[in-house]
Each structure stands twice: as C-alpha cells, then as structure tokens.
Amino acid sequence: MKKIIYTEKAPAPIGPYNQAVLTGNTLYTSGQIALDPVTMELVLDDIETETRQVMENMKAVLAAADMTFEHVVKTTIFIMDMGNFARINSVYGAYFDEATAPARETVQVAGLPKGVNVEISMIAVKA
C-alpha cells in the first residue's frame, strides 16, 4: 500500500505527481528543483544557492516522511551543464556523511523544468 507524502515546507507539485510516495519502509521522492516553497519563485542566484534550495526542499520532503538524509540510499542528479558538477557536488556533499553517503548517478540533460540548472530525486529507506 502506498502513502502520499506532502509538506507545505517544500514546493507544491505543479503537475500530476506528488512530492513523495512511501511504500512499506521505502520513500520515493519526485525530483526537486529550486522553487521557494513559500513564494513558488525560482531561486537561481548562482548554482550553489540553487543547489542549496533543492537540498532544503528535499530535506523538508524527507522530514515529512519522518526521515533524514541518513536514510537516503540512492540519488539521481540531473544537471544542465557538467561544468557545474564540482560546485553542485560541493553543496550536495555537505548534506551527507561521506562514509555513509548514498549511491548516486549524475546525468547531464538537454533541458529541465522551468529552465533550472539542477534537479535531484532520492530514494530513502527506514529500517
């Protein structure tokens, strides 16, 4: 059975999807972009600020499922320009303990929603 996860502390879905779905002890998140959850405006000052907003949105979604970044087992990062990888990775890495960091892939794509530079999705498991 699946449970829909929703929090006002992360951007509301802008299409036919949910912020996350919990099934059993596994959480599948939708991709988060740098939307401010209060204003629903994009936060695109620079790639670090944009990535931080994405991670804060994801933190809120995880919290709504009573989880933290420690529960994350897999992430997918979609970026527009692989030249930004090191800067994105620096912000992303600050949210994880390197010794227990999740599996991950990073993919450069041709386009992302609303013209953003980075989108991140996660899978988390609570034992």
UniProtKB/TrEMBL annotation:
<dbReference type="InterPro" id="IPR035959">
    <property type="entry name" value="RutC-like_sf"/>
</dbReference>
<dbReference type="InterPro" id="IPR006175">
    <property type="entry name" value="YjgF/YER057c/UK114"/>
</dbReference>
<dbReference type="InterPro" id="IPR006056">
    <property type="entry name" value="RidA"/>
</dbReference>
<dbReference type="GO" id="GO:0019239">
    <property type="term" value="F:deaminase activity"/>
</dbReference>
<dbReference type="GO" id="GO:0005829">
    <property type="term" value="C:cytosol"/>
</dbReference>
<protein>
    <submittedName>
        <fullName>RidA family protein</fullName>
    </submittedName>
</protein>
<comment type="similarity">
    <text>Belongs to the RutC family.</text>
</comment>
<dbReference type="Pfam" id="PF01042">
    <property type="entry name" value="Ribonuc_L-PSP"/>
</dbReference>
